[in-house]
């Protein structure tokens, strides 16, 4: 196993644990010295991972996020209301996707997580530079929405349903 492979596995091992993982345990699992683990942790941090050292071991400080894909339909005029409904409840509209009968699946990254970003997106559309992707599929489209919990996604789903934007399967 290369050092890079070991470091990737260390990150996954720490990520999957609910409690801190000691350097001694990692050293035994990967059959290396404790000093090698300390060096690996330094390199993992340098690669951008936020590893926290505690007296009980290492923890990975990552934001917890979940996501769900919603099938929605609305008019151009309702786009702002749809986006605000999602971001006001703590969601991020990661993308928009459509399934075109000729072109297949088309997707665009959005990463809209605030009213300001939603307004900027709406302003870009209104400027005439482009039209919403949903317009090529009779307003039907999908959004991958990212949030901090399933409960937040449930609230977003309920709100989209109440406003008549959510398309439910028949």
What does this structure look like?
The chain is of the alpha+beta class and 170 residues long. The chain contains 6 helices and 6 strands. A 4-stranded antiparallel beta sheet has the order 3-6-4-5, with helices on one face. Strands 1-2 form a two-stranded antiparallel sheet. A hairpin with a 2-residue loop joins β1 and β2. α1 crosses α3, α2 packs across α3 and α4 runs antiparallel to α5.
Overall mean confidence score, pLDDT = 92
Name the strands of the widest sheet in spatial order: 3-6-4-5
What portion of the residues fall into strands of 2 or more residues?
A: 15-25%
Segments where pLDDT lies below 50 for 5+ residues?
none
Topology diagram in text:
Elements: H1 3-16, H2 23-30, H3 34-46, E1 51-54, E2 57-60, E3 66-73, H4 79-88, E4 92-100, E5 104-112, H5 115-126, E6 140-147, H6 150-162
Antiparallel strand pairs: 1-2, 3-6, 4-5, 4-6
Helix pairs in contact: 1-3, 2-3, 4-5
Structure summarized in a few sentences:
With 170 residues, the chain is of the alpha+beta class.
What attributes characterize this protein structure?
41% helix, two-stranded antiparallel sheet, 6 strands, four-stranded antiparallel β-sheet, elongated, alpha+beta, 170 residues
């Amino acid at each position: 196993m290369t050092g890079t492979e070991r470091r990737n596995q260390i990150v996954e091992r720490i990520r999957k644990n609910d409690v801190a993982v000691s350097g001694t345990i990692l050293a035994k699992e990967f059959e290396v010295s404790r000093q090698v683990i300390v060096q690996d942790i330094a390199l993992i941090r340098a690669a951008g991972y936020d590893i926290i050292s505690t007296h009980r071991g290492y923890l990975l400080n990552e934001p917890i996020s979940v996501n769900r894909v919603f099938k929605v339909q609305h008019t151009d005029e309702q786009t702002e209301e749809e986006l605000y409904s999602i971001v006001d409840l703590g969601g991020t509209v990661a993308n928009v996707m459509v399934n075109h009968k000729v072109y297949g699946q088309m997707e665009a990254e959005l990463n809209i997580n605030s009213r300001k970003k939603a307004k900027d997106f709406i302003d870009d559309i209104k400027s005439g530079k482009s039209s919403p992707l949903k317009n090529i599929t009779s307003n039907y489209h999908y959004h991958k929405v990212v949030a901090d919990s399933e409960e937040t996604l449930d609230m977003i789903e309920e709100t989209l349903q109440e406003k008549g934007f959510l398309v439910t399967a028949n």
